[in-house]
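Inputs:
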Amino acid sequence: MIDNTSNTINIVISGVGGQGVLTLAEIMARAALQESYNVRVGEIHGMAQRGGHVICTVRIGEKALGPIIDPGTADILVGFEPIETLREAKLLKPQGKIIMSTHIVYPVAVSMGQAEYPAHEKIVSLLGEITDDIFEFDAMKLALEAGSSKALNMVMLGAIIGSGFIPISKETALSVVRDSFPKRFKAVNTKAVKMGYNAIS
Amino acid sequence: MVKPKELLEDSTGKTVLLLSNEAIARGVLEAAVRLVALYPGTPSSEIGNNLTFMAPHLENFYFEFSTNEKVAIEVAGAAAIAGVRSMMVCKGPGLNVAADPFLTLAYVGVRAGMVIVVADDPSMWSSQNENDSRYYALMANMPMLEPSDPAESKSMLLEAYKISEKLELPILFRTTTRINHTRGPVKFGKIPPRPDKVSFEKEPFRFVPIPAVARERHPKLLEQIEIAKEISETTPLNFTVGEGNLGIITSGVSYNYVLESLSSITQSAEILKLGMTHPLPEKKIADFLSRHKRILIVEELEPFLETHARRIAQLNNISVEIIGKEQGFFPRTFEYSTRIVTEALCKVINCNTPINWEKIEAKASGFNELPPRPPLLCAGCPHRASYYAIRVATRGKAIYPSDIGCYTLSIAPPLETADILFDMGSSITTACGIASVTDQDVVATIGDSTFFASGLPGLANAVYNQHRICLVVLDNRTTAMTGHQPHPGTGVTGMQEQVPPLDIAEVCRGLGVKYVKVIDPLESLIDLIAAVKDMVKWTRENHAPAVIISKAPCALLSAAERRKTGVYPPKYYVDSELCNSCKRCLNRLSCPAMYLDPETGKAMIDETLCNYCGTCTYVCPQKAIKQEESA
């Protein structure tokens, strides 16, 4: 956790189009701004979104200027899906933190039998070459328990806050979540954030 | 989630997290812009997406989604000539569409401020090329500004209108993807009132560029550019920061990478950051070049600043080493990052990079054999059904000219129904070309928004010149790829008013197409396959164009509607008793909601992803895919 704004915290969020990666990044950045930190978010829209691999960056700190996180410079890698976590693993600093949901979304190439989805042990061992600090959990299961598969990103948000790695309090995160969505999603989202938070802490 | 409502807030001094595109939409208010016209295109889309929902709440403000970029720039240009501030917005290739009026606008100029926002796309995240629009400023001799981040996207926009009015010229406001789609803190300023209706004062010998007029306007433009040069010399948009023997000239998003890179290797340098990049502050640059022995030029894409710097050095007899793309220190393709700048810097000053990127890349090469996950048609996308039908009807043997939209994704297996594409509207015209010189059947596809944007002249051409082409208009009731903007076929305007929509079938008949059918691809796939077969036969026999309009709403729209109403149709599932693991559903449709259960080897539907199109039920030879009985 940074306690001043002189260091930049680099967060990479990787997932599949439609999982709510961009929304999570925006929520985190709004919360960081509410905590009086400078922040940058890097997003890619359009063609890159259609069920394909999506990556989004959040950078917190005084010196965060550009949107991009280069290989070897991320403090945290948040993966919504196992192979999408591995795909961006090179962005992580050695011994950086990984928060990964184990719920698999099969790429079409795998469904069509053109490629094989790697075994879970293989994924974890490759990630292990970069860091030992890996937290994995089935965030989709928690999202469904919270009331909707769409709340997956809120579970991930809870886990990120719960990791204590970023300078955003649970209260700030929850208040930004409440302000950012229509009222009818409030209960599910709040529950999802709390479940993610409890899962890791 | 920044709601358009938030952008309307009259709360001066408030700091809000904004995408640069949202900051530009806010800037429209703070600059008292009276009219904005645009055709949506990623990465510029969120400017219009916000303005359309802000517009109904604003007095004396007009916003429209024009039919294309040429139309938009003409609408906005005329408004600025009439005497109100205006804006046109487009993506890089959109400025190519608007190039003709763009060049003339610089000749005739404007009476009130006008800004043309262009969003280039280095790395081509969502464009067919990465053309560098800065050369348009040079070619048209139109002044140009380039912001570096969300805060500058707004502050510089306000400055752009002042410069525009001082010079009576439009300003090209050049952004790139990593500007448009970066979020950062932006401070709100005051919202001044906008003027009411104005009166168009006639001045035909300025605004009608017959040769006699144009010959006067061109020298006049050059005079104005001389004044613009003085502005460029003195504006705070062009400034120096830092000190050191090394000099760096940069602009746009690269400025951030330069600052971060210098700090990461604790290298000092004097930076000349250029916000106004046409005309350039030549004296300022000459001074800067004279102060340093070595100058690094950091800019994405073409060596625009670099070429100018070399020209200025030569004109002023300055002996300086200019380092950029010409000697291969910087790439000419794709977007930059701090890493690219650091690697070049370290090569120049001969130091090690703080991170051993080669080692990281080597280690990561083992991860590169992961199953790919490219973008693809969404689960439930009606285009999947249309393309499946087209492929089956033509046995994959026809030529399939494609167009610009989500549906270009049909290039991927197993649909493989995209064979040629240039730009918006080219499906119809390339089909004409192919049909003229081959005996092959040609089945072109075009989206509804693209049809109105650029399809009509091509269709008129096909009718009049009697080209035997088949056209399937994929009418999903929206401009889907860029974020669901309305178009003339939807019945909603940029002002969010309901108006009578243009009917695509009627438009085709009106243009003289003799064969026009409308089919819902999700209603009956069998009928669509039969219709495509019939259309192909008809064009062969009649030597004329034929059109099928495959009409069903975008899956994302229907999904949003279901979430809103809470009404869900019965679920689809695979009856594992009947499924014989033939994988036809998976191999023919590549639907992201379907997968093979690794344990049973049978097809499965992921109900969290399924969008209820039902296309798979037609494709399964075992009839194993079923819909639950409704409760």
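Residues 254 and 612 of chain B are 45 Å apart (CA to CA). Flag for discussion at group meeting.
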